Amino acid sequence: MMNLEIEKQLTSLCGKTLKEASNQEIYHALLLYVQSESKKKIQKEEGRKLYYISAEFLIGKLLSNNLINLGIYEDVKEILNNSGKNLADLEEMELEPSLGNGGLGRLAACFLDSIATLNLLGDGIGLRYHFGLFHQNFKNNLQNETPDIWLSDDCWAEKTDVTYPVMLAGKEVKARLYTIYVTGYEGRTNRLNLFDLDTIDESIVEEGICFDKSKILENLTLFLYPDDSDEAGRLLRIYQQYLMVSAGAQLILEECHKRGSNYHDLKDYAAIQINDTHPSMVIPELIRLLEEKGIEFEEAVEIVEQVCAYTNHTILSEALEKWPVSSLEKVVPQLMPIIKKLDEVARKRSDNENTAIILNDVVHMAHMDIHFSHSTNGVAQLHTDILKESELADFYALYPDKFNNKTNGITFRRWLIACNPKLCAFIESLIGKGFHKNASELEKLLDHVNDEKVLGELIQIKKHNKHQLNVWMKKKQGIELNEDAMFSIQSKRLHEYKRQQLNLLFLIHQYLEIKNGHKPSVPLVSIFGAKAAPAYTIAKDIIHALLTLSNVFNEDEAVKKWLQIVMVENYNVSAAEKMIPACDLSEQISLASKEASGTGNMKFMLNGALTLGTMDGANVEIAQAVGNDNIFIFGASSKQVIERYQKNDYCALDWYESDPNLKRAVDFIISDEMLSMGNEENLRRLHHELIHKDWFQTFPDFNAYLVRKGQAMEEYSRDEKLWAKKALINIAHAGFFSSDRTIEEYNRDIWHLH
Ligand SMILES: *Cc1c(COP(=O)(O)O)cnc(C)c1O
Predict the structure, then answer these.
(1) pLDDT the model gives residue 4
(2) How does pLDDT run across 682-707, given as a tens digit for each residue?
């Protein structure tokens, strides 16, 4: 019945039968059909509404996820099969939206899914970037950057007639609203609101991702996080942020007013979540707009504080945004008087200079957020504890009740049901489908952890997924993987604190051991996915070293069968969906205290990988959930690390000189083998950086990492059933890391929707 109806609609949208239509035509028809089905699930807006403002929404491809959430995935698959078409081929037609960069943006996307699934009223607010961060490919063992093109006629973002005036440096521009509909799993439809300018000119991008940074009418929404190593780049980031929050704030006030708010009672209509500091200017902007509506400054401040809440995502000081007063005066002169008054209020609330907003003519955005919102949350227990105890201790003393923890989560619809259909079906066969919406039901799997047949099946599913990844890699990059090897994966943005360089040192060590006749217990395929920020030199050097080392391995017939490095180009959500189900060992090896939460760690766990990790971010909670026998923990504790930084007594050179294994591995970076295949400049710079700085303390953790990873490999090779049992225990305890749980907590403690 259902099938016939859908087929009729698709045929009519194509204007021909599905057999005759091309994949492109069917994709287009499906897009229109899904959009119209989604709109049917829009509900009347009642009570308070959440606005989640974020510079990034790393939403991934939308077709299959929407089909799953609408409950028509299987129907559509069957209809297509009957016409000789294949849903997987159609999924390939879709370009992944370039609206995010890493974990923070992916979190925002998981949250939108969970909010709609829980039938809560909540929309996203962001920007419609034309080219995202950049598209990455590798050339001569170097990262090469080009625009990440995704906008086309077949695009989920629908143009609207709605525009808002925004003043940029005293000139008015028109922010146009685009809408992507977000349908929950068996839930309601909400919106992702994205703003853009009609005047953007894509043709001003010259070679790579270079463009004239001063032409803001033409360039404003071209790229996410434009290079801020010069003044024009920094101004451009402020222009972007203000476009987002000014248009967003106007939209919020307009919607609330339409629903009956007189602005004095705004808190009964709106809850605003500020995702890290990029949207912080929404605070003074809302005050400015409320003043325009005739509300006095003091009351406007009170209203904004009741409505806004702030999420902190990092304790890396370079990421806590601070803007010079002079820059803000140039870009948003209308906000500076308000920010100055807010600074006065803050200074009245506390005579602790450290909590002021303007310090030495620099505006501290996070300080403004904490003073003038009612909630500040960290994103994993350890992270929140560190905020309270050290990083934001002065604020915690002032506002103990504002601080709370919300451990991150991931949506199981995308990160299990969609990306790992074999595993999902198998779990359903054991415990039913309840876990789709009630993730804690995965614990029922614990009844099966000693069932040999179940473990055997789990092993087969992992083998299948590894094969699928191999097929994909062959097609995408012409690289063949050794499917019989253990797959270890480290996929995440490239950053020194995440310590891809520690993995690099391990791989060098392993190589040298093999060359000396010490074969490992199992062949290893070490897979990386990582983009380095275009201006982050050392991060790019690490990529170069990994690619060069990969060449060294490939050229060596004796080593090749034991050790392989694979760098997946342009790591994004689509790549993650292929890689994560195929993983045996999940590398979560950040320097303890530096990874606020991580969400990659949760995706891997849910897909039956064991974690090799430090006691950092949500790894701590994963370890608690699965128990120490089912995870491989190593390295210094966050307490030790924080002490080292406080004493300022870490000396990389001492470690290097006192550990011959370490010295051998580090020096290999500038060995003849490496220099013959790589660039001297990049390799020497990395070598120098490690020996003389090693700011993220890879050397002290090097040995513990070797030992733990060796143990993991040994266990994997010795007893695959035991490994599978541990994997199943991990899956069974993954329920806590569902973003449905996270969103329930946000709603219970911060938003109070319904
Ligand atoms: C989940 C995800 C991330 C975040 O990974 P972490 O390991 O938590 O840093 C980054 N990029 C993509 C594409 C993801 O899907």
Answers:
(1) 86
(2) 999 999 999 999 999 999 999 999 99
CA dihedral 529, 532, 537, 542 (to 10 degrees): -10
In terms of Cα–Cα distance, which of 579, 497, 597 is closest to 106?
597
Q: Tell me: the pLDDT tens digits for 85-123? A: 999 999 999 999 999 999 999 999 999 999 999 999 999
Q: Which CATH number fits domain 412-737: 2.40.50.140, 3.40.250.10, 3.90.1530.10, 3.40.50.2000?
A: 3.40.50.2000
d(CA 36, CA 296): 44
Task: Name the phi and psi angles at 52, rounded to 5.
Answer: -100, 105
* CATH assignment, 41-61+96-408+742-751: 3.40.50.2000
Question: What is the model's pTM?
Answer: 0.98
- pLDDT for 1 equals 54
Give me the helices (H) in 312-451, please.
325-331, 336-349, 365-371, 381-386, 393-398, 412, 421-431
pLDDT at res. 754 = 84
Selecting among 498, 544, 725, 726, the annotated active-site residue is 498
Both structure tokens of 22: 């091309």
Residues with CB under 6 A from ligand 1: 102-103, 106, 492, 571-573, 576, 598-600, 603
Domain extents in the chain:
41-61+96-408+742-751, 412-737
Report yes or no: 195 and 244 within 8 Å, Cβ to Cβ. Answer: yes
Q: Is 492 a residue of the active site?
A: yes
Catalytic pick among 117, 311, 599, 614: 599
> How distant, in Å, are the alpha carbons of 12, 363, 415, 573, 598 from that of 578?
33, 42, 10, 9, 19
Q: What is the pLDDT of residues 534-545, one digit of tens each?
A: 999 999 999 999
